[in-house]
Structures are given as structure tokens and as C-alpha cells.
Amino acid sequence: MSATLYTTTATSTGEGRAGGRAVTDDGLLDLTLAIPKSMGGPGGATNPEQLFAAGWASCFHSGLKMVAAQQKTPVTDSTVTADVWITKTDEGGLALNAAIRVHIGGGITQEAAEALVAAAHQVCPYSVATRGNLPVDLTTTVA
What we know:
The protein is an alpha+beta fold. Helix content is about 30%, strand content about 30%. The protein contains three helices and six strands; from the N terminus they run βββαββααβ. It has helices at about 50-70, 110-125, 125-130, and strands spanning about 10-15, 20-25, 30, 75-90, 95-105, 135-140. It has a three-stranded antiparallel sheet, with no helix packed on it. Strands 4-5-6 form a three-stranded mixed sheet, covered by helices on one side. A hairpin with a 5-residue loop joins strand 2 (about 20-25) and strand 3 (about 30). Helix 1 (about 50-70) crosses helix 2 (about 110-125).
């Protein structure tokens, strides 16, 4: 096993996603959580799915920039959007689903952009961790 590069700790207290609080050990993240209105909650605060989507989008974007630099392919005006949603399972539980939408400007070809996105999907830790565990739709657009 390789050496650990980074560790963080977050603690949830109270009622979890139903009005609880999530705090990281360094105090930089300190949030009250709420169930979204669409799931019968009050809304008005963030929820775990938003945090997951923000983390995945940011991580994937870093992976995209990394593989582009390794391949000496200039990537400008790029955005990565992660859509995360919950569905009910046949067993009565809940499941996560995701879509990663990548847009790359700067005149890169569609084929080159798709290759970079595929490579980023292979190295992004969120993509690696979720691979085979939830459906992910990758979409790539260029300008």
C-alpha cells in the first residue's frame, strides 16, 4: 500500500441530514444539513448529495487538468458539473446516481476532449471509488 497523502475527518451530529450538523476536524466546513423539499424536508440548507456533487466535480476537474498537462494538451475555459440524484431501489432503499458533464473550450476537438474526460474518469478518486457502485453518465462538449 502506498503512503497516505491526505486525511480529513468530518463528524455528523444531531439528526444527520434532518437538521443535523456536519463539521470537519479543522473547522473549515461547518454546516447545518436539511432534507431537500423534494424529499419531504424543509430545504433551506445543504444536504449530503450537494456536498458529494461539489467534491466530485472539483476532484474530476483537477483530474482533467492533470491528464491534460501530462498529455501536453492545453485545456482552457473548462467546467465540470456533477449531477447527483437519489432514486428508490426495488428493495425499498435509496440509491445514488450521477452524471458528469464536462465542457472544454479553446478549440479542442470533440475526440480529444472525450479522450481527456475518459482519462480523468480513470484517475479521479471519486470516480474510482464509485466505479461499479452507481451509474454514471459522462457527457463531453467543446466550444
